[in-house]
Design brief:
By secondary structure, the protein is an all-alpha fold. It has 17 helices and no strands. InterPro entries: EmrB-like, MFS, MFS_dom, MFS_trans_sf.
């Protein structure tokens, strides 16, 4: 028993480190957007690509990362992902121009896509009991919450003291420590002996996601009626249709559409997408708002986000206990209602309100973001067979990262296209509030259907 607990502790430490750098790299970049723009010469669209090159690659390759881990071993793929992430972070730190920085961010997304789903697979195997697994996932999410909380402040401090390049270079030693710890984790036997990969599905996913986000980012700059944007929209739509058709016919698809027959699985993926969209979209918008409209420094911006990000960490750690006490059904619904309440209060942004009025809304948004992700993750992983845990984890994280990419693209487009800036902010806040209510409704209906007709005990 003690040996098992020691092993579980070792796995949890190793996987938590990887999750920390993935989340840290998402939140730490936002407070350095203005210095990056000044150093490399970039407009809002360029900054959107700096953020989205990472999240877009992360989202589009997550499914393949999970499937690859199921085929050749989660530990092997996880370790490769950490090393790729470390090298890419170093390249980001030394990037001479915007183009190289975006390419390096793509490589960071590749590394993250390999390691994140495999970290959940390692946890799934190390914690076979559902209740223990939920607690472990909650701890993992809690570490991510700490990284989210520390990211803006750490980014502000590093940028203030050492310049924006240091926010990427800080990932290198953390990743290398994580790689060393991973060598002490036992290998997990591949769950799927079929070594074939769904190349067609992967390429179509990249085309569909990339074209969709490109249209949203560039549409505000080039004009929504531009021929390039129209062609991009057609390519995006054709890519999504072809992706669904191809995945429905393959024997070993990258995205098994049969997973979505489970209401719990479908609802978990959907609410993860919505949560990522509204949280990261508003996070990007607020970062630009504080630094551009209010002329705050990166350090001031990082400090301004503390009431939001600290509550993400608290919510993540509290999610496991709240899930056991109240169940995922009530917890996720309550989280989205908190989202709606917090976002509704942020309408004050459009009126150039004092900071304290804005900060009053942050705890509700942060706590909601913290509790939703681990609750939805635990529910989804319970609904997936252990042999397909890597693919299941990939779907969940792909949903969240796809939402984040769309959020940055959509809210950035609103900020660029709707002037004056207070009008764009008001539309963005109303959109976030409406999507929050939609998330609560979809989750409630899906879980009710699962309980009534499938006898699901996932909650």
């Amino acid at each position: 028993m003690n040996d098992e607990r020691e092993y579980q502790k070792r796995v949890l430490i190793a996987t938590s480190l990887s999750y920390v750098i993935v989340i840290l790299d998402t939140s730490i970049v936002n407070v350095a957007l203005e210095p990056v723009a000044a150093s490399l010469g970039s407009d809002i669209a360029g900054l959107q690509w700096v953020v989205n090159a990472y999240t877009l690659t992360f989202a589009s390759l997550l499914l393949s990362g999970g499937a690859l881990g199921d085929r050749i071993g989660a530990k092997t793929v996880y370790l490769a992902g950490l090393l790729v992430f470390a090298c890419a972070s170093a390249l980001c730190g030394f990037a001479p121009d915007l183009q190289i920085l975006v390419v390096a961010r793509v490589l960071q997304g590749l590394g993250a896509a390999l390691l994140v789903p495999c970290s959940l697979t390692l946890i799934n195997h190390a914690f076979p009991v559902a209740r223990q697994r939920a607690s472990a996932i909650g701890m993992l999410a809690g570490c991510g919450g700490i990284a989210m909380a520390a990211g803006p402040l750490a980014g502000g401090l590093l940028t203030h003291l050492l310049g924006w390049r240091s926010i990427f270079l800080v990932n290198v030693p953390i990743a290398l420590i994580g790689a060393w710890l991973t060598t002490r984790v036992d290998s997990v036997r591949p769950a799927n002996s079929d070594k074939s990969m769904d190349v067609a599905g992967q390429l179509l996913a990249i085309v569909a996601l990339g074209a969709s986000v490109a249209v949203l980012i560039e549409g505000a700059k080039l004009g929504w009626q531009a021929a390039t944007i129209r062609v991009g929209a057609v390519i995006a739509l054709a890519g999504w249709v072809a992706f669904v058709l191809v995945e429905g016919k393959r024997k070993q698809p990258m995205l098994p559409l049969g997973f979505f027959r489970s209401p719990v699985f479908s609802a978990s993926a959907f609410v993860s997408l919505i949560s990522g969209l509204i949280f990261y979209g508003l996070f990007f918008l607020l970062s630009l708002y504080f630094q551009s409209a209010r002329a705050w420094s990166p350090l001031q911006t990082g400090l301004a986000f503390l009431p939001l990000t600290v509550m993400v960490a608290i919510g993540s750690f509290a999610s496991g206990a709240l899930n056991r006490t109240y169940g995922a059904h009530r917890l996720v619904c309550a989280g989205f209602l908190l989202y709606a309440l917090g976002f509704a209060g942020l309408v004050a942004l459009a009126d150039d309100a004092p900071y304290w009025r804005i900060a009053l809304c942050f705890p509700a948004v942060g706590f909601a973001a913290g509790v939703i992700s681990p609750a939805a993750t635990a529910a989804l992983m319970t609904a997936v067979d252990k042999a397909r845990a890597g693919v299941g984890a990939g779907v969940l994280n792909a949903s969240r990262q796809t939402g984040a990419a769309f959020g940055v693209a959509i809210f950035g487009a609103l900020m660029s296209a709707i002037q004056p800036i207070d009008a764009g902010i008001r539309v963005a806040v109303y959109l976030a509030t409406g999507l929050s209510l939609l998330g609560a409704l979809v989750w409630s209906v899906a879980l009710a259907v699962a309980t009534r007709y499938a006898g699901s005990d996932a909650c």
